[in-house]
Amino acid sequence: MNTHILLTISILISNRPDTVRKCLDSIQPLLKKVPSELILVDTGCGEQVRSVIEEYTDNIVDFVWCRNFAKARNAGLERARGEWFMYMDDDEWFEDVRDIIRFFNSGEFRIYGVGLYTTRDYIRTDGSQYIDSLAARMVRLEPDIRFIYRIHECFNRAPGKAKRIDAFTHHYGYAYQTAEKAREHAARNIGLLQEELAEHPSNMRHMLQLVQEYNALGEAEKSLELSLEAIERAKAGAVEEEYCLSSLYGNAINGYIVTYQYDEAIRKGEEYIKSKRTDRMVKALIAGRLAVAYVDKEDYGKAFSHAKNYWDTYQAYLKNRDAFIGFETPVTQSCFNKQKRTPILGNGVRAAVHCGQAVWAWKWFREMDWRLEKYSLDFGVIRDILKCMAGADMQELPLYEKMCNVILERQDLEEVVLEDVLECCDIHEEMQDGGEMDFCEEAEGCRVCDSQIFRKRTRGISAFGNLPIEHWFIRLARLTAAAFWPERGISCRGEEAEAMALEIWKAREESMLYMKAYHMPQTVNILGGDMGHMLEEIPFSQWEKDLTDHFSRYTWKDTVWLAKAFRAVREQDSMRMLAWRAACGISRASWETAALENMAEESDGFADNVLGGLREYALCRIKLCEEIYKEKIIRSMPDLLPEEYQGAYVIRNLLEKTEAAQYAEAVESVREIMNLLPGLAPIMRHYLKWLEIQLERQKKESTQAAGELQVLARQIKARVHALMEAGQYEAALGVTEQLLPLLPGDGELQQLQKEIISKLRSG
Hints:
Helix content is 60%, strand content 8%. β6 and β7 form a beta hairpin. α11 crosses α13 (338-354) and α31 (643-659) runs antiparallel to α32.
C-alpha cells in the first residue's frame, strides 16, 4: 500500500556515539504524527554507531566522505520521497517539535516554500553560553532543488516564501574542550571556504562565512580585513549572493568596535548606515555599535540618537519578525538577541541619563538582562546611572530608584553600587581644598545649611537615601535627606535618627570625614534626636576603646568639629561625655605640645594651651573616678585605682603647684606622672623644659629683687642717719621698724635701731 509521504528527514551520521541517540529520539514524535520517512546518510560512522542507527531505520545511504557537505546532503536528497525535505546532523537534537507537527498537520505548509527554525549553538560544554541562529533547514521539494557548496551547504533556491517555525535544536558541535580542537575545526572550515572562494571569488556568502570563522576564533583583525576587502570588491563590480554583502558592512563596524578603533567605526559607520547596500537589520546593527562608540567619546547626544534608531528597528522586528527573515545572516541574526541587545541598550541608557532622558533610560534599562549578563559592568552603566541620579529632579528620581532596585536584585552587584555611590559623593578632595565649614551648635540658624556648596553636597547624597542597602553611607544619606531635603519623602525622627547615627559612628574609620562633611551631629539634632542619647547606647567600656582608637587616628585639631558637636550634648557631665572631654583634653595637650618647638619662645603658649588641655583631662578623669569609686577608697587607698585615675590626681596637684609658682615641687610631680602614665611622656618632657625655664626666671627675678632691696636699704639708712642728726628720733625709729622685716639679717640696721631707742630713753 502506497502511503503519501509529507516529510523526509535526512540526517548525516558520523562517529558520534554520545549524541546520535538523542538526535534520533528527538524526532520520533514528528515521525509518528506527520506522514514521514527517515533517511540516514552514513559518512563513516563505525560499527558502534551503525548498530545504533539500524535500530531506528533500515533506510541508510552509505556515502564515502569526500570533504563536500553538499554532495553528502544530496545523497540523502536523491532518495527522498517526501513533499518536504528537512535535514539535520547527528550532534543536534530538538527540544520540542510540536510547532513543526502543527505546521504540517494544519495544512499551513501549502502556502510556504521554506521553513526556518533556530539552532542553538553552544560555545561552552556546560551549556552556559550559546548563540541562537535562524536556519533554513526545511524546503518544499521541486525537481531542481539541490544542495550547493562544500561547507555551510544550503539549498540552491527558495521555492516560495519563508516561514519561521517555533522550534530549536541543541547543538554542541562548536563547544570544544580545548582551544586546539576549536582551531582544528575552524581550520577545516576555512580550508573548504577558501576552496569555494578560489572558484567563486565574488561570492559574498562564502566571504561572509569565512569572516564568521575568524570571528569564532577571536581573530577580529582578520575578519575586519576580509570584510573591507569584500566591500571594495563589490564596489569594483558585480558580486554573487549580494544579499550577504550588507552583513559584511555590519561585520566591518563590529570589527572596528571590538578592536577599539572607535574613530574609524564612527567614520565608516555613519557612511554605511546611509548606504543603499545595507538592509534594515544591518542599519540597526551599525546604529547599535555607533551608540557604543559615541558613548566612549562622551558624545551622548549622538549616542542617544543611534540607540533610539536601533530601538525603533527592534520594535518593528518584534511586531513582525517574519518581515526580517530575508535580512538574517550569521552576522545579523544575533542583532536583537539578549546577548547583543544588553550592551547596546546599556550604552543607550548611559547616553539617555546624560541627556536628561530618564524615561528612555528606564525603557531601555528594562530590556537589559541584569540577572544573567555582566555587560553592564564592562560598559559602566551602573556608574553613569548613579552619577546622573545624584542630580536628578523629583520627576526623574523614581525612575532611577527603579533601576537601582533592579540592579540590586543581584546581590553580587551591591558592592559595585556602593563603590560607585561613594565615588559620586566623594568629598575627600573638596574637604582638603578648603571645603571645611564651621559646625553650628544650634539646630536653628545654621549658617552653612543655605550655602551652595552644602546644598549641592547634600542634594547629591540624599538621592541615594531610598536604596535598599544596609550600609552606613546609605544611612547617612537617609539622615541627610530627612533633615535637608524633605521633598525626597524620607522621614526620620528622634530615636530612629540616633540609631542611624550610632551605626554610622561604628564605621568611623571610613565614615568620619563624611560625618563631618554632612554635619551628622547637627542633622540628628534637627531631626529631634540627641547625640548624647546615641552615646548612651554604647557600652562604656566600648566607648573608652572607641576613644582610644579615635585619637590614635585623629588629633584634637582634626576633630574640633566633633568636639563642638559634643558640646551641644545636654548632659556634659555624663560618664561618656566626661570620658570624651578627658580624651579630647589630652589630645589637645599632645597636639599643642607638638606644635611648640621652641619652649623658651613659646612658654606663654604652653601655659595657655597645653596646661588647659591637661586641666580638662585631670578634672574630667577625677569626676569619672568619683562616679565609679567610693570616696573612702579614693582617699585612703589611692593605689587601688587604675593608673589613669591616679595620674589624674597627680596632674591636678601638678597644676596647683604650677599655679602657685612652686616649680621645684612641680618637677617631682612631673616625674611621678611619667611613671604612672608613660603615654604622656612627650608632654611631660616638654613640661619639664618649661618648668626649668620658669625656675630660671624665678631665680633671676629673686636675685634682681634682692639687689633692688639693698639699694633701697642704703637710701633708707641714709635717711635714718639724717633724721637722727636732726634729732627726729621717733620718725627715725618708725622707718627702721618698717625696714627690718624686709632685711631681718641686716646688722647695721639693727644697730641703728638700738642707738635710736637709747637716745629716746636718755632724752
